[in-house]
Specification:
With 585 residues, this protein is of the alpha+beta class. Among the domains are: 11-117, no CATH class; 160-214, Ribbon (Seminal Fluid Protein  PDC-109 (Domain B)); 368-399, no CATH class; 408-484, no CATH class; 497-582, Jelly Rolls. 18% of the residues lie in helices and 27% in strands. The protein has a 5-stranded mixed β-sheet with strand order 29-31-35-36-33, with no helix packed on it. Strand 25 and strand 26 form a beta hairpin. Helix 3 (216-246) packs antiparallel against helix 4 (248-285). It is flat. The model is unreliable at 434-442, 444-456 and 458-467 (pLDDT under 50).
Length: 585
């Protein structure tokens, strides 16, 4: 019966759950056109399952028994690929016969397509020059599958084999297994090589190319110990049996003695283990006498903090701090003790006072006295009866009118030039006269809050002979009044340079090549830096900052190019955003 063959995969996989039914949506012509798997086991039609086919060719299968222990049930299209019909020249040509034949051919094509989806295939975009045919069987035997530099299949490393007893001068492959006849250990080759040297392989020149699979020596020792223990136990059991035969009471006593002996042996073994552990712990902490500072303990392990050893060359006991060896003791010769209350200095008291700066005799004399640290105030003797503090004489009341003038009620001090060492506060109507030594000096003026209008302060530089007026727009803010200029930040840059906060308010000159980097999360809103490219070619500005824009654009730039002899002014909107104005692109 002709049916419509739809374009659906000819395979469906279910989680195993009861006998079913398990449906399939691809069309079949007969019950034998499918294969059913319980996990990886192929089931048999009728014996393990039955098939129900709908009028449109789809259907379901029902298992004859619950799939206990299975995880998956798979149904796969599996019509036998053959042709059993033939059209005879001049014979009958029926539509249903042709439809059946075409349905069968379509099913064959879908089965092949479904199988190909589960095969190893190269992508459609691979070069047509790649040959995906595997090497010959004799070439690829016992080797892994690999791909060469073009992506074509080739043979990889040898899989490895049991090569029997190890011998010198043999070419071994990676993964080969050999036996070391001197120790009976079994080794695995981790690197392909030609063997050399001699056994045992643990000390062979190629020992790093072998890994132990079976430590036969250790296993043999354990087996021997077990056999000896078994033999001893057998002997003791025989003796106990003989004693039991002679006397039940003796047997009981022997059993009790055996228990006691066993307990004693266990205690002795535990005591021995504890003693060995204590000795090992002591040996790790006291390393004995050595001629130089050791770098490892006596077991070849890392040094413990607090470890000790006696240096036989210096004659000093040393202790390990965790990073270095230091002397653990000092000689008591020449030391002062609290109990003696400095009585050890009796014979040389005068010299001792001189050495510690107390002068000589019973009345100490001082050249100078430091009050606090060495960087603090120093009091010295300027001359007879005169004390100086930090080099300046301390004047007495008798000096008023001579070395020092009397107090002047004229607090404004309009009659003399004033020098201030701290910030001063003036009324709004007050004027400050600048007697600065250089035309480049500046005066910092702090406006006081208390009004809403701007206040003006007149500065009269002595060297200019004319007044200048500085207007403070905000009475509550601080301002620095000075000459307007942009200073150079350091010397001209000749290599790559990352901007720092020391460059704020200054300009960077790039000379004889180099580049500039704008770092992220470094500057604050309002910071400004100017870059001057003093070279004959463009330079690169790398924008590591999160957002960087050229003024007048809305494109975040990762890099910018500053033209030759060009200027770029960088205004930071925040620590992660800036705008660059100038000869940049």
């Amino acid at each position: 019966m002709p049916i419509q063959i739809n374009n659906v995969p000819r395979r469906v996989v279910y989680a195993a759950s009861g006998v079913g039914p398990y449906a399939f949506t691809f069309e079949i012509l007969a019950a034998g056109d499918i294969a059913v798997f319980k996990d990886d086991a192929l089931l048999t039609l009728t014996t393990n399952y039955t098939v129900t086919i709908a009028a449109n060719g789809t259907g379901s299968i029902t298992l004859t028994a619950d799939p206990t222990g299975a995880t998956q049930i798979a149904i796969v299209g599996n019509r036998t690929i053959q042709r059993t019909t033939d059209f005879t020249t001049g014979g009958d040509f029926f539509a249903n016969t042709l439809n059946d034949e075409l349905d069968q051919q379509t099913i064959f094509a879908q089965q092949n397509a479904e199988g190909l989806t589960r095969s190893l295939q190269a992508p459609q975009t691979d070069p047509t020059s790649i040959n995906m045919i595997l090497p010959r069987a004799s070439v690829r035997a016992n080797k892994t599958l690999a791909f060469n530099s073009t992506g074509a299949p080739t043979t990889g490393e040898v899989i490895g084999d049991n090569r029997g007893n190890w011998s010198a001068g043999v070419s071994y492959n990676k993964r080969d297994i050999v036996k070391d006849t001197s120790t009976s250990n079994i080794f695995y080759a981790n690197t392909a090589h030609t063997s050399s040297g001699s056994q045992p392989l643990t000390t062979n020149v190629d020992s790093a190319k072998w890994d132990v699979l079976v430590d036969a020596a250790a296993a043999s020792t354990s087996a021997t110990n077990a056999a000896n223990s078994a033999s001893t136990a057998t002997t003791q059991a025989s003796n106990a049996s003989t004693s039991a035969t002679n006397s039940a009471n003796s047997a009981t006593a022997a059993a009790n003695s055996a228990t006691t002996a066993s307990n004693s042996a266990t205690s002795a073994a535990n005591a021995q283990a504890a003693a060995e552990a204590a000795l090992d712990s002591f040996d790790d902490r006291y390393l004995g006498s050595k001629t130089a500072n050791p770098t490892l303990d006596n077991d070849g392990n890392a040094l413990l903090t607090g470890a000790l050893y006696f240096n036989s060359v210096d004659g000093v006991m040393k202790v390990y701090t965790g990073s270095a060896w230091v002397a653990a003791s000092v000689s008591a010769s020449g030391l002062l003790t609290v109990a003696n209350n400095l009585s050890e200095l009796t014979a040389t008291a005068s010299t001792a006072r001189t050495n510690i700066g107390l002068g000589t005799g019973d009345s100490p004399q001082f050249t100078a006295v430091n009050i606090g640290n060495s960087s603090d105030t120093t009091v010295t003797r300027a001359s007879a009866g005169v004390i100086a503090v930090e080099g300046s004489n301390v004047l007495m009341a008798s000096n008023i009118g001579g070395s020092v003038q009397a107090y002047d009620v004229d607090t404004a001090k309009t009659d003399v030039v004033q020098t201030f060492t701290a910030a001063q506060t003036f009324r709004a109507a007050s004027a400050i006269r600048s007697e600065v030594a250089s035309t480049q000096d500046a005066i910092v003026i702090a406006g006081r809050a208390g009004g809403t209008t701007s206040r003006a302060i007149t500065l009269t530089p002595a060297s200019l002979g004319a007044s200048r007026t500085a207007t403070m727009p905000d009475p509550g803010a601080d301002y620095t009044v000075g000459f307007r200029n942009v200073p150079l930040s350091g010397s001209a840059k000749t290599t790559s340079y990352s901007l720092t906060t020391d460059d704020i308010g200054e300009y960077i000159e790039v000379g004889s090549g180099g580049s500039i980097t704008i770092p992220n999360s470094t500057f604050a809103a309002g910071d400004v830096i100017t870059v001057f490219n003093n070279t004959s070619g463009a330079i690169t500005i790398t924008c590591s900052i999160t957002d960087a824009y050229i003024a007048g654009t809305d494109s975040d730039k990762a890099t910018m190019s500053l033209a030759t002899r060009g200027l770029a002014t960088i205004l930071f909107i925040s620590g992660t955003r800036c705008v660059v104005q100038g000869n940049v692109s």
